[in-house]
Task: structure prediction
Amino acid sequence: MPSSIAAEIQRILLRGVVIPASPLALNPNRRLDERRQRALWRYYSSAGSGGIAVGVHTTQFAIRDPKIGLFRPLLGLAAEEFSRLDARRREPLIRIAGICGPTVQATAEASTARDLGFHAGLLSLSALREADNDTLLRHCRAVAEILPVIGFYLQPAVGGRVLSYSFWRAFLEIENIVAIKIAPFNRYQTLDVIRAVAESGRDDVALYTGNDDNIVLDLLTPYTFRVQGRLVVRRFVGGLLGHWAVWTRRAVELLEECHAAAKAPGVPSNLLQRAVEVTDANAAFFDAAHGFAGCIAGLHEVLRRQGLLEGIWCLDPNETLSPGQDAEIDRVYRMYPHLADDEFVAQHRDEWLSG
Result:
């Protein structure tokens, strides 16, 4: 990656942007629908997203199954489409690839992403569930030697594992770390990571929220620690979220409001109210009532209603909406129409589908 591009990408990351975790567009035969996949990425770019993550949980980990074989083709399609989008943007989209599996798999995926021009890899450690910190850190270093790494703290309820303060403190000694996505859905564990960043002295690592139950409050909160006699303040500057794969235009506007509020004294009450509304909407989309079983299908359903996806199909035929989830999505649409961007999508959908 040319150093000029690397510096620009780091500047964008540190400023803080909306990064949707891209869903996978499928046709009724559960095969890749290239036209709608491209349309989805065009939507995110037009909505004002600063980057897009591909090959992550929302994209469905089954793309790596040899019988499906979509990991490299999908990243290749994304690289091509992102280059087309960049030609019409003021600044490039941050290209993030999901990286997972044991070290042999993770380094191979990182090499694929690097070769296709991705800027960073979101590194999941779920496959190393029983590994000790030394093993985890060797794994992270191996990937970071190939591709800049975005650390990922994933909540145990959806396949993650507990990662200690001492792990994160040592993780931050790895030079090629550019950001950390924090999504343990646990304020204590969130603090472990942010304190480690503050005490590491690194100001070149961006913090992104993945706490879908606490998005707005994460973006509004100053995390302050006394480090060697001085106060260090760190903030979440953006979000890398499956939740932001829908109603994305409103997410971009929300992040702008949060950035402005962070510079002003006091927090506007309307943003505190919005925090509750966004969490309620997330509960419907992500199917919190059923342990997140319908989280991917819930996002697909919103995109289907907007006409961006043809259906809610997942690679696994058993993965679909949970009982009552459709009605919950109806409810949040009725209660919070100001959170939806259906009008924006309707204005541009045909262009995105035909371009």
